[in-house]
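Changelog note: in this version the structure field was regenerated for every chain. One regenerated record is shown below for reference.
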Amino acid sequence: MKSVNLPRKATAVAALCATLALSPFVQAESDIMERSFCVFDPVGANGPLFAITKTFQPVALKEGIKLDLRAYTDEKVAAEDFKAGQCDAVLLTGTRAREFNKFTGTLEAMGAVPGEEEMRLLYNTLSQEKARPFLIDGDYEVAGVFPGGAVYLHTRDRAIDSVEKLQGKRIATLDFDTASVRMVRHVGASVVGSNSANFAGKFNNGSVDLAYAPAVAYSPLELYKGVNPNGGVFKYALAYMNFQVIIHRDRFPDDAGQMVRDQAIKRIDEAYEIIAEAEAGIPDDIWMHPPQEDVAEYDKMLRKVRLSLLEDGVYDERAISLMKAIRCRVDGARSECAS
């Protein structure tokens, strides 16, 4: 299977996992510690995320910990196994992580993070020690958050170039995510229940008309098969995807989470370089650029849906407020900043 750029991305994400194994507390142990790690990789055990994760196993063993890495192509199963205690740590997308931490699960809220500058400010804020209370929820702690890039709408037909033309179209939708389902219904499109393991296949074989994903998924999941010959990628950020490392707090020392976050923020530039390369890897003639006046309307639409989800308790109010403050810091001229 063709793959572009993602291995370097996997290196950055895997570094978060490695920190759990290579931190000072492990080196002080006289006995080998065994820790299991559920790794979501849409390609599976032969995928880039899992492959890179395997490279630090022998290094971790030298430091006193034996890592049991388990690849999952179905993110739901990875989350369920972690929840059942079968894994000490797990790597998930931000949307799936919402069941373990509502605050960090809100970071992928639609339209909440317009671009890289806002996301950098957000990550810098969350990496500070004083942010830890927001990252702990019961027995779980979000040990690290890493960017996955802007989420774009992929279409099999370039004629679908506006919100109005989405009406009646079939969209591969993460059916476990209330926010995604509501957004699709808001624009009058048809929800086709999907998950991280099958949405690409549905898009590529024509079972759906559209799907949404970040640029880093374009080559590894072969989304170009669905886009070609008549489709395109709509260059408007619906949301900003992230990966999250979540741990069972009682299975790691108290300072383990902060150590992971400290390492994550040091590698943030590498992550953004990978995202930029992935976006540059999509041919210019595939991108569809909406008019600026339409972008303003899309921003308003996403804000309306975002606030409705907040009112219904799907999103965390603290996270929504933080991201609004960051948006207004970057661009005080936004209409929402007057309120």
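Spot check on this record: Residues 33-330 form a domain with the D-Maltodextrin-Binding Protein; domain 2 fold (CATH 3.40.190.170). The first strand starts at residue 33 and ends at 40.
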